[in-house]
Automatic annotation (TrEMBL):
UniProt keyword annotations, A-Z: Methyltransferase, Transferase
InterPro entries reported for this sequence: Methyltransf_25 (IPR041698), SAM-dependent_MTases_sf (IPR029063)
Signal sequence extent: none
Protein name in UniProt: Methyltransferase domain-containing protein
BP terms from Gene Ontology: methylation
UniProt organism field: Panacibacter ginsenosidivorans
Alphabetical list of Pfam families matching this protein: Methyltransf_25 (PF13649)
Length: 230
């Protein structure tokens, strides 16, 4: 593997012929990975950094999958902040799974759609994505970041992978040993190889015309990108 450049091989999950039981297993294992390796903790951290002292917030996730990131936010702040959630995913099967998942017992609106085709009657305060951006080309991400900026009233954040050999080989062997999902075994290390380095994020943000941002490195090999409107 050459980690100096991203690779663009499509993940199995990005193909249209995957049976839903396999997608469901994939989402369940990703939730476990995000829980044990701190991915949900990073998402909650990004949310808290943007809301400040607000007591009522609407938060929208694009590429929400089964809704586990939104559930983590709602659970973390349920006593102190009144949160309304919006989950958007292009795969109707993922939205159906999220609707039926008893863990998603918080105020939420589910939307099965390409995020870019969604029109909000009232802008969400915060928009975010987690493990979503590495599915796209740099050119598509420029448009995506601009959409997130234009459609959020407070700002947006991104939680995604740092392309690094230690991250790649660690998740490769962990999933070989512990995963029962062929999607996770294939896509988890491939996701790292499709991830970004800090300078690449800086170039994408510059191309999108976004200046007010912070890039924070987080364990385990994640970047948290925070963009707050001035």
């Amino acid at each position: 593997m050459n980690f100096s450049k991203r690779i663009y091989t499509k993940e199995l999950l990005d193909q249209g012929n995957i049976p839903f039981p396999d997608i469901k297993k994939n989402m369940q294992e990703l939730n476990a990975i995000n829980t044990w390796l701190g991915g949900h903790k990073i998402t909650v951290n990004g949310f808290k950094q943007l809301i400040g002292k607000r007591k009522e917030v609407t938060v929208c996730e694009i590429g929400c999958g089964g809704g586990d990131n939104l559930a983590a936010i709602a659970k973390a702040v349920k006593i102190k902040v009144l949160v309304k959630c919006i989950g958007i995913d292009i795969k109707k099967e993922c939205i159906d799974f999220a609707i039926e998942n008893p863990a998603n017992n918080y105020r939420v609106e589910w939307i099965a759609s390409d995020y870019s085709k969604v029109f909000f009657k009232q802008q969400p305060d915060i928009i975010f994505s987690s493990l979503f951006c590495h599915h796209f080309t740099e050119e598509a991400l420029v448009t995506q970041l601009q959409w997130m900026k234009e459609n959020s009233s407070i700002g947006f954040f991104i939680n995604d992978l740092h392309r690094h050999p230690l991250a790649y080989y660690s998740i490769k062997w962990l999933t070989i040993i512990f995963s029962n999902s062929y999607l996770v075994k294939n896509d988890a290390p491939l996701s790292v190889a499709r991830g970004f380095k800090k300078k690449e994020w800086e170039n994408i943000l510059k191309a999108a015309g976004i200046k007010n941002y912070k890039i924070q490195w987080k364990w385990a090999f994640r970047y948290l990108i925070l963009c707050k409107h001035a």
